[in-house]
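Re: export button greyed out
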Amino acid sequence: MLNEISFYLLAALTVACAVAAMALRRLVHCALCAAAAFAGLALIYLQLDAEFVGFAQLLVYVGAIAILIVFAVLLTRGEEAAPGGRQSSPSWISGVGIAVLLLAGLLLPILASPSLQHGAPPAPVPSVKRIGEELMTRYVLPLEMVGVLLTAALLGAVVIALREPSDGNLPGNSPAQQRAKTGEAMNL
Amino acid sequence: MNALDQIFVSTLHRLAGFAPASARPLVSMLLIIAGLMALFGTCFALATILERKTLGRMQNRYGPNRVGPFGLFQPIADGVKMLIKEDIVPFSADQALHFLAPLVLTVPVWLAFAVLPFGRNMSAIELDSGILFFFAIGSASELAVFMAGWSSQNKYSLLGAMRAIAQMISYEVPLVLASVPALIAAGSLSLPAIVQAQSGFALGWVPRWNVFTPWGLAGFALFLIAATAESNRCPFDLPEGESELIAGYLTEYSGFKYALFFLGEYLGLFAVTGLAVTLFLGGWQAPAPWLQWLPTWGWFALKFSALIFLFIWARATLPRLRLDQLLHFAWKFLVPLALINLVVAVAWCKSGLWQFPAALEIRWLLGAGVLAASYVGLGRSWKGGYPERRQYNYAQ
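Workaround output, generated via the alternate export path:
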């Protein structure tokens, strides 16, 4: 009973934050609402006794991805939407199409899976030790692959970020000014 | 001895016993929360006066000495002042976020105390993955700093927030990497289990604390440095550098919201200090067999206070870093060293099976040698501290 009430509260909160993340006008508010929705999802995991997943969700989504979004918003500093202007992008139809396709792609395998036929299995005890053992034995190859993929992505990001603007092309770009500029960029 | 050791636990049980049986878990949780808040609220007040006094002594002046005996009531006066000060919100500020930011900073920090083992049987909740909870909760503070900086709609605040977030993200990596060896050695993510793994004495008199192993010593140093940076304290306090950023993201805060930021900062420092004690200094374990008559929470408090004093001492002694030096230091020195430390820790744990005489000494020397060599090598190869001379356009 108490469990159900808290689930509905958390679910309502998460959905409300997700809706707000799409509907609000200022980009920073949207990003923060998305972070709140991530946190709500983590709380739902915790309510399902999935301790590790819940904390990992908090650590990765609130601690890293939300910060990344916020940083991207800050560094690009695009123009805020005008008060009266339209809020949806002109290509919203394709967005809806993609969302429907994604939902279908997730739902069909879930509905077709045999685990739905033979009832709910006894809830496993997903202790951290158990997760670690599985990751290091049965799923060690996927884990390593993900590690390699993430390292490659990291290196790619560094390579893209390292590309210096070729000096001398712009007028009035003396080395001293160039140095001052890089100094400013570093001081940020 | 045992009665004194468990005095808080037994008091809690007795107090909760007055409640009807169905409400007992809730009541005992509320009692624990009230106790923790009272304890660390007092700690905050004491730490501010201790910090100002110590800084004063180290800078050859008196420090606050007007309110009460030896100025001991200064925190109360400060608190009253903060409460009755006008709370100014800038006209152009984002009102909701400006209001929420201090709360988002302060509330999660309280949660971090829930998993720290303050003594035998004395952690509020024993989570299977306690340390993960600790770091997950800590990630909210970066968002809070961003909210504060952005909602003020002021370029100094925004710059301060950007600096603070860059610093916090950078130093979170060595912080977590430095604590991983302790988890490996204990084979658990639960903090009470980590403390338990450090019990006993090697050679009969050296406590088996992690700090007495080569990887533990290096990890402890790395952890302390990263913790100082995470809690924005000197010498890493440039996000609020008052000389260049007029206090960074705190610029537009006054009155009690400002006090809440300070509360959050100090509580974050306390939490991470408690974690350092738990991970490396053996938690609540006594340092010698004949010293076990002191209650376990007393040992925790002693180690905790010693570390807090170390932080205050560092603040009085060290000059502030420049931002580029700070970030270079994290990524080019601390992170590689923490990774090497991880390898050394794994080798240490694996070589625990060695059976020949003096195996412990050989392991120790090997580990310390590898770490010292990489320390010197990394430090020598690191050019971050000596950049080419910069040209200042308007200062010649």
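Residues 86-381 of chain B form one domain. The button fix ships in the next patch.
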